[in-house]
UniProtKB/TrEMBL annotation:
Its cofactor is pyridoxal 5'-phosphate. GO terms for molecular function: pyridoxal phosphate binding; sphinganine-1-phosphate aldolase activity; transaminase activity. The keyword DNA-binding does not apply. Belongs to the group II decarboxylase family. Sphingosine-1-phosphate lyase subfamily. PANTHER family: PTHR42735, SPHINGOSINE-1-PHOSPHATE LYASE 1. This is Aspartate aminotransferase family protein. Keywords: Aminotransferase, Lyase, Pyridoxal phosphate, Transferase. The modification N6-(pyridoxal phosphate)lysine is found at residue 254. GO terms for cellular component: membrane. GO terms for biological process: carboxylic acid metabolic process; sphingolipid catabolic process.
């Protein structure tokens, strides 16, 4: 039987895919109209690329655009595109050491490189921080017998979700005016609780007091957003106290510039955590650790980026984003027509027009510059410094202009 060319390297097809990428989806024919039901006969790979390019590439938001600052989603470096191509071709499954010997080593390597920045001794990758939080809380329940989860009202919804899945009671603590957990509102007895502290809240980038609350059965730090500041000599003190945690979640698909889905769950005592989270199976050569079964080589993409840039290169890009955030915050503070929310110190800038409706002001901004944030029932706008290519001159001019309309 002759081999199926769909599974062979097609350099011409892949080259065309690159051309389409370069032209942002401008394609012959340029229509993405899709059949209403599964086609009986396919149109072939080359035609499928042409058909999809105007939609996939042409109707996308480019996160490296000069005004892109609305979300915690960064652009990704080209090295990750190249390694993602290799990974798609290999389709390794990290569940099976035989199919993915190097990819497993790559994941172990990035975990080993990054865990010490948080005072942890290991961990594993997950497909995002919702899963990293769930995994950490699962370890807390099974290793320490915690019965409730205590987190601030500004914590991410994934913490509530994890409590629900794990059958744990969810107890909410209040926040101070800067949206940091207020320790005075914590229950007196935390011995049967997993305390979740956030480093970089989703709405305003606030960092909870990470040090000094050492009376919980287990302490987890959700550093999905701000965790990568640990790599920066300039900013790592913003996370001081994180090394006292039992576990830490960090998103690599946020401020480590990785394609989705990429995050880490790190543990102070990885051996104990992985023992609890590990399941053997008749078809497995190594235990399956954590929530996911089959999973891909996200670690290899992260390894490639860290190898290419080093700690210094990664920190320089994060610091550049922080400089952009400081510039925006200073502009807002000095602008008579704008009101700023207190700066959380992690590159999330929240503001609103001082005397106009937020919705009208927001409609006058270029799309992708700011996202809505509802704080204490009031409308605000949020910019996130995740884009190292942000054109700050243009962004400041656009905000100024929106204020004049
Ligand atoms: C603080 C925080 N924790 C957890 C998450 C969930 O991460 P993911 O979307 O990767 O599941 C987010 C997402 O924005 C977040 O901001």
């Amino acid at each position: 039987m002759s081999s199926d060319p769909s599974f062979e390297l097609n350099s011409e097809g892949l080259f065309r895919a690159l051309e389409l990428l370069e032209g942002r989806g401008a394609s012959r024919g340029a229509s993405t109209s899709l059949p209403k039901s599964l086609p009986h006969v396919g149109i072939g790979e080359r035609e499928a690329l042409e058909r999809l390019a105007p939609g996939v590439l042409g109707r996308a938001t480019y996160l490296d655009a000069g005004h892109a600052m609305a979300h915690m989603d960064p652009p990704t470096p080209w090295i990750t595109w190249a390694v993602a191509l290799w990974s798609a071709r290999l389709n390794q499954n990290l569940l099976h050491p035989a199919t993915a010997p190097f990819a497993r080593e790559a994941e172990a390597c990035v975990v080993e490189w990054l865990a010490p920045f948080f005072g942890m001794n290991g961990g594993h990758m997950t497909a995002g921080s919702s899963l990293a939080n769930l995994t950490a809380l699962w370890a807390a329940r099974d290793l320490r017998g915690v019965r409730k989860v205590v987190a601030s009202s500004a914590s991410h919804l994934s913490v509530r979700k994890a409590a629900r899945i794990l059958g744990l009671e969810y107890v909410e603590a209040a926040v101070d005016p800067r949206h940091r957990l207020d320790p005075a509102t914590l229950p007196g007895d935390l011995s049967d609780a997993c305390l979740v502290l956030t480093a970089g809240t989703t709405s305003v980038g606030a960092v909870d007091p990470l040090a000094g609350i050492d009376r919980a059965g287990w302490t987890h730090v959700d550093a999905a957003w701000a965790g990568p500041l640990a790599l920066s000599g300039r900013y790592r003190n913003r996370l001081s106290g994180v090394d006292q945690a039992d576990s830490v979640a960090v998103s690599a698909h946020k401020w480590l510039f990785q394609p989705k889905e990429s995050a880490l769950v790190l543990f102070r005592d990885t051996e104990a955590a992985h023992h609890t989270l590990g399941f053997g199976g008749a078809y497995l050569a190594a235990p399956n650790i954590g929530v996911q079964g089959s999973h891909g080589a996200a670690g290899t993409l992260l390894l490639a980026t860290l190898l290419a840039w080093g700690r210094e290169g990664m920190a320089a890009r994060i610091e550049h984003c922080m400089d952009n955030a400081s510039r925006l915050q200073a502009f807002i503070s000095a602008h008579p027509g704008l009101e700023g929310f207190p700066d959380g110190g992690t590159g999330v800038i929240v503001f609103r027009p001082a005397s106009r409706k937020v919705e009208a002001f927001s409609a006058a901004l270029p799309q992708g510059l700011a996202s809505p944030a509802n704080l204490n029932g009031e409308a605000w706008l949020r910019c996130v410094a995740a884009n190292p290519n942000a054109d700050m001159e243009g962004i400041l001019a656009a905000i100024d202009e929106a204020g004049r309309r």
